[in-house]
Amino acid sequence: SVFVLAAGAVGLGLVIGILSAGFLKLVDLGQHVLWKAGWADFPYAPLLICTLGGILVGLCQRYLGDHPKSLHGAVEELRETGRLAYAHLPHGLLSAAISLVFGASLGPEAAIVSLLGGLSTCLLYTSDAADELLCVDLGCRRIIKKKNTLYSFSF
């Protein structure tokens, strides 16, 4: 019904808004701790902090993959498939947070778009509208939908 659809949209918007605000607050807190703490005032601190940040971003790219996608890449994927892959959402958020905290000159837009699109896709494909036998990982649980019956297995 229309009421259920509207309630779901409001609920999803609320969850994504809270998570987006939390992500931005976490990045702000990390920047404050890393760059405005008293220990970062010695002459070579920016060189050491940026070097450490570059190493961490490189390790994220190497072991977690090239996530989040660029804003253009996310829009293209959404246009082509009608959804955004959410399997690497935690990897993308971690990579973006590390690069933003350590002073990368990029904005949080790609991470926020990945969060928005990934969670929307995840909730769509784990809801009652999901296809039969669709399996997805959501956090630490595997959700399997089959003929409107939910089987949940914890790992």
What would you say this structure looks like, in words?
- This protein has helices at residues 2-35, 45-64, 71-81, 89-101, 109-125; strands at 135-138, 141-146, 149-154.
- By secondary structure, the chain is mostly helical.
- The protein has a three-stranded antiparallel β-sheet with strand order 1-2-3, with no helix packed on it.
- A hairpin with a 2-residue loop joins strand 1 and strand 2 (141-146).
- It is elongated and about 60 Å long.
For the biggest sheet, the summary is:
3 strands, antiparallel
Give the radius of gyration.
19 Å
* Low-confidence blocks of residues: 129-155
Strand line-up in the sheet with most strands: 1-2-3
Shape: elongated
Tally of helical segments: 5
Q: Could you give the distance between the termini?
A: 35 Å
Summarize model confidence as the mean pLDDT: 77
Which strand-content bin applies to the residues?
Answer: 5-15%
Q: H/E series, N to C? A: HHHHHEEE
Number of strands: 3
Structural class comes to mainly alpha
Helix content: 55-70%
